[in-house]
Amino acid sequence: MNSLSKRRTLPGFTPTLTATLLWLAILVLIPLATLFWTAAQLDASTFWQVVTSPRAVAAYKLTFGVALLAALANGVGGFLLAWVLVRHPFPGRNVVDAMLDIPFALPTAVAGLAFATLCSANGWLGRGLALLGIHAANNRLAIWVVLTYVSLPFVVRTLQPVIEDLGTEADQAAASLGASRWQTFAWVLAPQLLPALLTGMALAFARAVGEYGSVVFVSGNIPYRTEIIPLVILGHLESYHFAEAASVAVVMLLASFMVNGAINLLARWSRRHA
Amino acid sequence: MHSAHTPFWVRYLLLLLALAWVGLWILLPVSTVVYGAFANGWGSYLSALADPESVHAFYLTLIAALWSVAINLVFGLAAAWAIAKYQFRGKTLLLSLIDLPFSVSPVIAGLVFVLLFGGQTLAGTWLAAQHIQILYALPAIVIATVFVTFPFVAREVLPVMEAMGTEEEEAALTLGASGWQTFWLITLPGIKWGLLYGVILCTARAFGEFGAVAVVSGRIAMETNTLSLHVEKLYQEYQSQAAFAVASALLVIALLTLVAKSAVEWRLRRALTEIKHAPESV
User: What is the pLDDT of residue A10?
Assistant: First the structure.
């Protein structure tokens, strides 16, 4: 108890904690409670009808599906980047490393504008893809492109410290025992990196699911085809269907909380393995 | 510490693939912005930036960002102080509540304030009766921005404050310094890099926020159109070059943020290792 009484000698506990709780309540808890309260204005069957309407279901499938594909792409690309950055130093590595934060720092509207232009029929990417018979503009492909971009840093940033800590002793030991490079990778390195890789991919997925700014530029926002969940919510809001907007938002929010819970479990698993 | 037994062609192939990945996802969009901004030459680039709507959007974004950073600075310091310096029940819960805004999609972040202030609730009717305009005006833009940037300052200051411990502050108080003197002379210099780092992250997000602000601002030109929203407006109006010009301003801000961030990151890491090693040697 000595440490407890000693810690209380610093002034300011009551005012700072009170300010924190009050501020948290006003800014976060009351607004979120309002969301649930507004959704609860609908009776159970109407709520169910709204959140399972074909248009909403199409949006769930699109949002979660494309976000998953973006997370998978980042799993591969992020692993490659983290590996090269840690294990194979090259001139200009620090610049490349710093550039990886651009998706965090650059406003999503700017990225959306750039990718919309790139994917358009006469854009740099769009022209190339058109030769292959693929139309990227206003398409799911374009949504995948921007979601992969916005969630790009997560896997790299989660893997980098783990690969650094790994060192090279384990794979050198495996190699000296006669393991081939692929055997070393598959049986020695991959199992140790898997928890961090999955954590990074889950973070990327969570980020991609919530993304709005860049998607509206590239998707064309066509109901049933390229409409993501935030757009369904805004659609209800624009026609003053507040309870309906709140209902879909509640479903999305609960899904995000579940993803977050999974991320915490993964992170704990990751730390145990570290 | 590269793996010595990796043959050199494998190393070059991996490096090439990694650079191609960065080129595709990072360099390509960035160069598109620069190329698009100057597509019609310097003259139209400058006139797009000097356009009254762009200038107003810039001012509005700056003011909203300053307010959000100031508010989060006060809150973040208070929260970090309470959490780092004292032991109490429910600390973990409080921390996860502070993190909560990060898992809320920006559009939902905007929606909750439309619902709260929109007239259907007690708060909404009361505000309407007092003729206080929050929605579709600066206050709503600031509130939505504060929501999405809520955890940044607290989250970055907290680990530094925890690492500092309480000994130095207690010594200052024992020697007769007041609470505020202790804070200004002992705590603040100790946490300055963490604080600055949080402020940088907060500023970057505040400048670029799109979804939450789009929902609450009403997007009225010359009134509630922020830079990000203005980029979209110009794009919808097929003024591609002007959209890119405004976007390039945001790009410059983002690049400056990154430079500041890496400079501070380095100092923050050094400060943290210094703190970690200091108490043991005493």
Answer: 83
CATH number at residue B155: 1.10.3720.10
Instruction: Tell me the pLDDT tens digit for each residue of B148-187.
Output: 999 999 999 999 999 888 888 989 998 988 889 999 999 9
Q: How far apart are CA B138 and CA B147, in angstroms?
A: 14
The domain in which residue B24 lies consists of 1-37
Question: What is the number of domains present in chain B?
Answer: 2
- Name the helix (H) or strand (E) containing B14: helix B8-22
- Nearest beta carbon to residue B18 from set A84, A101, A245: A84
Predicted ipTM of the assembly: 0.91
Supply the CATH number for residue A264's domain. 1.10.3720.10
Degrees to nearest 5, angle at CA B90 with B87 and B95? 90
> Which among B36, B101, B105 is the nearest to A212, CB-wise?
B105
Q: What percent of chain B has pLDDT over 90?
A: 68
- B156 inside 8 A of chain A by CB: no
pLDDT score, position B279: 53
Residue found by looking up tokens 């990751």 in the block: A270
Select the residue of B15, B98, B235 nearest A113 (Cβ to Cβ).
B235
Instruction: Inform me whether the C-beta atom of residue B147 falls under 8 Å from chain A C-beta atoms.
Output: yes
Total of domains in chain A? 1
Q: Does a structural domain hold residue A184? A: yes
Chain A residue with the nearest C-alpha to that of B209: A107
Nearest CA distance, A127 vs chain B (angstrom) = 14
- The answer to whether the Cβ–Cβ distance between B231 and A113 falls below 8 Å is yes
Percent of chain A that is helix, strand, coil (3-state, to 5)? 80, 0, 20
Give the C-alpha separation, A2 to A133, whole Å: 73
Is residue B92 domain-shared with residue B159, that is, in the same domain?
yes
* Within-domain flag for A1: no
Look up the domain containing A147 and give its range: 38-273
